Each structure stands twice: as C-alpha cells, then as structure tokens.
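FIELD: query
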Amino acid sequence: MLRRQALALGSLLLGACTLGGWTVFRTKQNPPLLLSARDDSDGKHFAVGYRLDGKQVFATQVGQRCHDIINHPDLPLALFVARRPGTESYLLDMRDGRLLQTITSLPNRHFYGHAVIHKGGGWLYATENDTTDPGRGLLGVYRFIDERLVHSGELSTHGVGPHQVSWMPDGETLVVANGGIRTEAESRVEMNLNAMQPSLVLMRRDGTLLSKETLSQPMNSIRHLAIASDGTVVSGQQFMGDAQASAELLAIKRPGEPFVAFPLAENQLQAMNHYSASVAIHNDLRLVALSAPRGNRFFIWNLDSGKVRLDAPLADCAGIGAVENGFVVTSGQGRCRFYDCRQDQITATPLELPAGLWDNHLHIA
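FIELD: result
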C-alpha cells in the first residue's frame, strides 16, 4: 500500500473506543500506537510498537516470549505479559520502548499470558498457575507503587487453567476464561484431557464468585474474550477432543442469558480446524470477528443475528483489533490488513507493517 493510502487509512481511525481488548485514541498529536509481541527470523523475542502507517516506534528485545499487552489508563506504560508458562512480564515506556521493570512471577507460579489494569490505575490482575497444585487458577494481584508493580496477593479464579481475564463494562466485575487444562511448571503438556474443567467465571475484584458456566463439551477449552459495551461476552475456544468431532469454537453470553454456542454454520466450524486465536467485538457496527490461524481463516459475523459477513482466507491470522470502520488483523506469516466493514461488501487493504512473525494478540494505545 502506498504511503498516502496508509495516511488515508489513518484518517479513518479518528475517535476513541475500547473494543475487544483494543483501546483506540486518535488525534493528530497522538496517533495510535500498535503494540504486540513478535519474534525475528532467529527466534529472538521482541516487544514492539508501531504506528499504523508502518513507522516503528520501538522494538525492545526481551528474554521470554510475550502474549497479550495492556496499557495503563493514565501513564505511558505498557505491560507485555509472558506467554504460558513464562515467568517474566515486561513493563515498558510506550514512548521509546525502554524496559522499566521485569516482573518475575512468585516461586511455584507462572503467567498465563493475560492481565488487566483497574480503571483507577492502581491495581493489576494477571492470570497465573499454581504449579504446586497444577492448574489451580489464580489472579496474581499487583499494585502500582512509584510506577512499578509490586505483588500484593492473589485470588482464586474458581477454576482450572485460567487464560484471559477481562473487565465487564462496570469496570469492577472481572470475567475469566478458565481453560480447564492442567499443566506443570515449565511445560505446555496437557495433563488432564480426559477430565478437563473449562468454565466462564464472573467475579468481583475481592474474589467473590458471581457466576460460573460451562459449554456442552468438556474438552472445549475456553480461552479468549471480547466484551461488548452492553455487557455481552463472547469467547473463543480451542477443542482438545477427537479430530473428527464438531466443536463450539465461538460462544456468547448475552446480558441476563446463559452461556451458549454462537450460531455458526458447520462448514465454518470445520474450517477453523478446532482452534481459535483472537476474538474482537465492534460495538458501533455490532460485529464480532475471530481468527483461526490453524485453518488460515478470518471470520466476521453480525453480533445480533449471527449472519456471516466475511469468511476469508488469511494465512496464520493472529491478533484482531476493532477500529472506527472495521478491524485490523495481523498475521504470523503474511501481511497485516485493515478490513473496512462499513458497506455490505467488506474490503481488505494491506498495511505497511512488517509481514509475519506477529503473536496472536495486539493492542493499540
């Protein structure tokens, strides 16, 4: 894409919103910063920041591979969270990529790849594993003191193998995707595939359990979350069962309703190859998007009707972000793309960002 086309795309991203884990704030003085974890061709790990026109702001080498990223609501700080079973997460200055702090998990704990910061800016909650009782889900509780994170306690996630944690719209209620899989320290080997316990949990910040729900297939690991402004929760799954079985890889919990499978066509489920990576909701357009990298497919549906809006091939599609007029999607192998969803016919435009080697998540601050 020509530079003038990239700049034209940037003009589409004016406004502010929080959608599916992305925070977008765009002004002429403060263009959006795309944050992600990437590897290089030698397998080295980096925490990176790019503008949407392709300009690199930083690429900071880190010791362990990271997964998701969150930014502080008031300070120019971003936390790159270790991928399971990593033990180091990295607090960076978003302005230049300086590594400010390496947060090391406590003994007999490791990170699960996701975290959230409270809207007040004082507290952080990270999904963690208790390796003395493998799979026992925890939220590590950390406090910001002098712009550094200090471990202050932990809460039960009321489940096994927690992966992503998110906020409900009230900013006080936590949603946890308990993947249901037990793993030991320094391992990604599943220990309990015949006795998995995935669950979707809503809980208060003090640890009080509000609800705990499951899907119909116990081998369907609940992994990633997107929360709509009306309180609708959407989750993406990874199925650990028989290769020939059909699995509910997208599920939804509407306000006041039970947690159920999102209505998908069988051919769409088969195309996902039992694996979803990222899920995002576009509030204004009432759309939900999902990447299925093992099936090399990218999907968009109407959030209310379930009608498919896009079913497109995209090699090793990874992170998804909702922006004003559609979605931005990264790839582990190919080009990053912007999908314009304003018309009946969704159109894709390549972005001038580095191709390939992007992790499954990204964040715009």
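FIELD: remark
Residues 1-28 have pLDDT under 50 and may be disordered.
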